[in-house]
Amino acid sequence: MGETKVQLEITARRRDTIRALGKSIQQLREDAAVTRSALARAAGIDPSYEGRIETGEREPSLTTLTALATVLGADLSVRLYPTTGARIRDHLQAAMVETLIRCLHPRWRPVPEIPVMRPARGVIDLVLAERTAPLLVASEVHSELRRLEQQVRWHREKEASLPSSSVWPAAAPTGEPVTLRLLVLRVTRAMLDLARTYEATLRAAYPAAARDVMAALTGASVPWPGPGIVWARVEGGRAELLDGAPRGVRLGR
User: Fold this and answer.
1) DSSP string, 119-148
2) What kind of fold does domain 91-241 have according to CATH?
3) Each residue of 214-226: pLDDT tens digit?
4) Helices and strands counted in the chain (H then E)
5) In Å, how far are 86, 116, 132, 142 from 135, measured between CA atoms?
């Protein structure tokens, strides 16, 4: 069986990363006027191995990279930057996004998986662009929520980064668009407990009533009420958006 598209991309990215590391080490070494042999001896590795690292023929271990960086007086940092979004998705989240798109009034143009680059780097699950007004809604969809404070902060940062996205130019032909946030949450016992426990925090971040948000999503001329939360019930792989907040939850009422 041949390699999948994701596996092929993994191989290509691994090769590119190894080559980039090698070029970086070579540049630092040459800037410091240090020979390959001298660098290898100081780092405790074989000179021929160091040479193959620079040419991208060998994949150095983290220990070797740390040694080379230390000798060259450089900092070594490993970090993952969100770009195009995960290649694998929570199937419940996918069902929620599909249902949200299907319920939209034609006044909205849905654009899924929108990368933003600055000031924050990441991917917005779904951007809703109003066709008749300069308005963009950064929509995040979650079937579960582990870190509330991170979600609130990250959602604000993604919204603020919309000007760096591909949807911004089309939404701003006559002026700067208004940007707002929509958070879609799945109805689960854990999510309801979180909503009750941190009601004040969530209400401050998403003050609009869920019923008003749904009216704006599905209505022809209902104005967007501001940052808000919409709830979704998922059963058997199918999602349903609620008209208001679930029973027992005051958030969004």
Assistant:
1) SS-EEEEEEEEESSSSEEEEEEEES--S-H
2) Trna Endonuclease; Chain: A, domain 1 (3.40.1350)
3) 999 999 989 999 9
4) 10, 6
5) 27, 17, 9, 23
C-alpha–C-alpha distance, residues 169 and 27, integer Å: 38
Across the chain, mean pLDDT equals 90
Q: Which CATH architecture has domain 5-72?
A: Orthogonal Bundle (1.10)
Sequence spans of domains, the chain? 5-72, 91-241
Average pLDDT over residues 18-34: 94
Q: Identify whether the C-beta of residue 107 lies closer than 8 Å to the C-beta of residue 121.
A: no
Per-residue H/E/C for 150-217:
HHHHHHHHHHHCHHHCCCHHHHCCCCCCEEEEEEEEECCHHHHHHHHHCHHHHHHHCCECHHHHHHHH
* Amino acid in the structure at residue 67: A
Render pLDDT for 1-25 as a digit per residue (tens, 0 to 9): 556 667 777 888 899 899 999 999 9
- CA nearest 125: which of 149, 79, 92, 78? 92
3-class SS shares of the chain: helix, strand, coil, % to 5? 45, 20, 35
Residue 135 main-chain phi, psi, to 5 deg: -140, 130
Cβ-contact 148, 107 below 8 angstroms? no
Distance, in Å, from the CA atom of 199 to the CA atom of 251, rounded to the nearest integer, reads 6
Q: How far is CA 156 from the centre of its chain?
A: 12
Across the range 153-169, mean pLDDT stands at 93
pLDDT tens column, 116-139: 988 888 889 999 999 988 999 999
Q: pTM, whole model, 2 decimals?
A: 0.70
